[in-house]
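Pasting two entries for a bug report.
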Amino acid sequence: MVNNLNYLNISKGMAIAALEALKSNPFPNPKVGAALFDKNMKLKNKSYHVQKGLDHAEVSLIKEAKLEDSDYLYVTLEPCYHDDTSPSCAKELINTNIKNVIIGDVDVDSRTAGKSIELLSENGINIKVETGINDLLNPYYENVSKSSSITYIGKIGISSNNYIYDSESKNKYITNDISLDISHILRATVDAILIGKNTFIIDNPILNIRNSELKDTADNPLKIVWWGSKVPNEIKKNDKLNQYLFIESSSLQELENTLIENNCRSLLVEGGKYIHELLFAHNKYLKFYEFRSKNFINKGLSMDYLSQSVFNEAYKEENKFLLKDNELVIYTRK
């Protein structure tokens, strides 16, 4: 299986656990995946947290596989310390033979918050933290105590000369297959995807998840089109479009109210130009993913946000990855 998360410097084991995590949305709990490997890094089993009230990923894995002391267990978030609707994963793990656990981020939940790492270490388990994994999979998580707060994630595909649309080409994709696949993985990390009216009309996007591991995921993000004015009746009455939620208001507050009403904690914004510029102006993005190709576009729609003072004052470059002939730059709010 090709796992393009490896391009983001995510280890083989954690990348597999990460895709497992994205196979379900156990709202209100975070998405968590686990993957078990033998001493030769051959995959033995994998699991994910299906829904609240059912076994967490680690407990599910313990029930399905025999954990040996030479195995390596990858978990995308620190195992929970407390007993709740599922037993404490940390306490369950110390009752197995596992000696090597790699976790993706310390849990910010005060009920765990490093306590499991301490417990596992005290019981002879080697712990390694591969940071940034839970931040990727559950971008809202650090805002979890702010029930009315929406976590905005931006994404753009752009040419070498800052064009986001090529009017001279029938191919609507500017970036390569790796960039597209990672974009689809990003869709699986959020509760909703947002596009504007022009993007909807020009690109006719499906807004589904087409990563090979995630294409059959039952819990797809809500598809929102920010129309900003009265939606034509031929669109409203088109049964093929009933999977989209159209917002007629141009108010940012109305957008946020709609997201909260639909239990959306995180939003991936895929365009268009007006929406990106509006959200930059209001400093809304927690992260912004720029997929840049080497292609030069002669005619179309350009967007040079990098030269805008509002962007440079509010955002900084966090990371940069080479995706063959594309480049991914991740910006974060300062």
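Entry 2 (this is the one that rendered wrong in the viewer):
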Amino acid sequence: MTNTDSRTEFDAKAAETGANATRYFQEKAKAVGETDAARVHAIATDALSAFHDVIAKHQVTYEEYDALKAWIIRVGEDGEWPLFLDVFIEHAVEASVNADRRGSKGSIEGPFYVPGAPELGAEGTMPMRDDEPGTPLDFGGTVTDLDGDPLAGATVELWHCDDNGYYSQFAPGLPEWNLRGTFTTGADGRYLAHTIQPSPYQIPHDGATGAFIRTAGLHAWRPAHLHLKVVAPEHQLITTQLYFEAGDYLDSDVAAAVKPELVLSPTAKADGSGNEVTYDFILDPA
């Protein structure tokens, strides 16, 4: 995907971002098998029953019902279902799926993951512009099993927004793989990424999801975070996000995805060239 667009990331629109998120999700969904009919029946019945209870509790009017239908149609037209569901629903699914995990804590994937990020070895610099804004960050650690033994050949996929709060492939004007990379641990299980520290950002809010947020009296902000997928042979994949101590919106994340175990505490590098932080991943067996 070569970016020939003359616009900049500041020209990003929710509908365009939503369309990209929907396209990537559709590719992902091609690999999803059929869902068990009994599970569909049980979940759908309970979900509809809960929705009916909400309608009765709040005595929903036909005007409100019609407003809901109009909004649902707009979400589809804007391509924002991946955005809306990942922001407001995914954290509950993630908590359920990872309830029995003994290793590192998971968090939501979100709508901005793209597979196939460049391979950077055990240590490397994330793809970025020559004048990439922001504070340089050295982010590294060790991937181990539950016994603390290092895992060789573990892959650490890392992606995050830039200092302006935008993701490559979801905003115009950014290089295709900007701030996206894949690291592979050596025999010592270590990885080290040279990148920049991301900023808090507002989720795309000029479309249907933003209309919902405004009407419900919410805010659209997410705290600054790194996204990661970590896996090793014969071990379970962990998808997570890491946040920054004392950062804005840690206590009011619109996606409700922050966990205390996932908060980083970077320190200034001795040479004054930016910040550094270590985070070790512990993987459960497959």
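Dev reply: Rendering is fixed now. As a check, the viewer should reflect this: The helical segments are 14-29, 37-58, 62-77, 81-88, 90-97, 208-215.
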